Amino acid sequence: DLRMSRGLGDVYKRQRDFLSRLPLEVTLEDFNNTTEKIFYPMPALDLADVTRGCAPGPGDITIYAPWKNVAIFCKNWSYSNDLIKIGHIEGDGIEALRTTGDIKVKFERQ
């Protein structure tokens, strides 16, 4: 069950472009030995006027600014100024992504 956490202020501004595209079916690519699952939204998400930098943990949904890809973290990772947090997978939904290889998912509003 992949859900976006509701945010306020800057977090909401960062989520708005992503949420406007839902429902969205994508194939998440396995990246860095199941540390994260990534995909490249087309067109790229709007990164104007957003605060950068986070130390992602399991379930965090981020944008990696240099590549403009969405990265969902399955493991803890170090702080990066290039990551923009846009949400979090609630509950045990992250367990479904902790597999090797690519996985097809659907993001939708609940």
Can you describe this structure?
- There is one protein chain.
- The protein has a six-stranded antiparallel β-sheet with strand order 5-3-4-2-1-6.
- 23% of the residues are buried.
- The longest helix has 10 residues.
- With 110 residues, it is mainly beta.
- It has one helix and six strands; from the N terminus they run αββββββ.
- 9% of the residues lie in helices and 30% in strands.
- About 5% of the residues have low confidence.
Oligomer: single chain
How are the strands of the largest sheet arranged? 5-3-4-2-1-6
Helix proportion range: under 10%
Number of strands: 6
Low-pLDDT stretches are: 5-9
What is the residue-averaged pLDDT?
85
Strand content: 25-35%
Largest sheet: 6 strands, antiparallel
Structural class: mainly beta
Give the N-terminus to C-terminus distance in angstroms: 10 Å
Give me the number of helical elements: 1
Order of helices and strands: HEEEEEE
**How does the overall form come out from the CA principal axes?**
globular
Rg, please?
13 Å
